[in-house]
Amino acid sequence: MIGRSLGLLALVMFVVGLGALGWRGNAFDVRARPPFGSVATAFDDPIGYPGYVWTRDGRSVGPSELNTIAGPDHCHWQSATMLHIGWPPGTISTIATQARQYIRDPRGVIRDSHRDRLGRNVGLPEDARPTGYRLGAIELYLSPSDQESWIYVVSPSDQERWPRADPMVACA
Fold it and tell me: How far apart are the first and last CA of the chain?
């Protein structure tokens, strides 16, 4: 009887551990799909490089075109999300000057200014348009009137305005 209980306990712990690893590693893109299709759910605990696999107009894009990754662990920035997008959208960037960086840093681990400029549950500007980039139910929008400063990350349940880092930030 005790052996059976210990076996059941071990099985439960294994399943819980597997679930936790699957969530952290975003196995099968679970955090980007409904009911997890919210910006907060996908990016409150960002994943490392190469990050999520985004699509544009139905095709997968590589990290040189668009990536959303956790900041580097060695600088203690792993709670921040860095979005790098080839510029203009659709560009496959081979050097930093061919891309833009936007940062979601709700804890202010990189700089307080990124935390303070992050907009949660904000409305889209009237001229905002979808870029064609999708991560499950999440879409990226740009507004010609403020794309020098912001990118909009939009899901069915929430939307956020992420500030541009100009110049790009990196740590040593």
Answer: 56
H or E stretch covering 24: helix 2-24
Residue with tokens 């879409």: 139
Query: Do residues 33 and 41 lie in contact, with contact meaning Cβ atoms separated by under 8 Å?
Result: no
**CA–CA distance, 15 with 119 (Å, rounded to integer):** 36
pLDDT digits (tens, 9 = 90+) for 96-141: 999 999 999 999 999 888 899 999 999 999 999 999 999 999 999 9
| Bond before 35 cis per omega within 30 degrees | yes
Our measurement of the distance from residue 26's CA atom to the centroid of its chain's CA atoms, rounded to an integer in Å, reads 11
Contact 43, 158 (CB under 8 A): no
- Residue 24 has which token pair? 């952290």
List the structure tokens of 163: 């500030």
Q: Indicate the pTM of the whole model.
A: 0.79
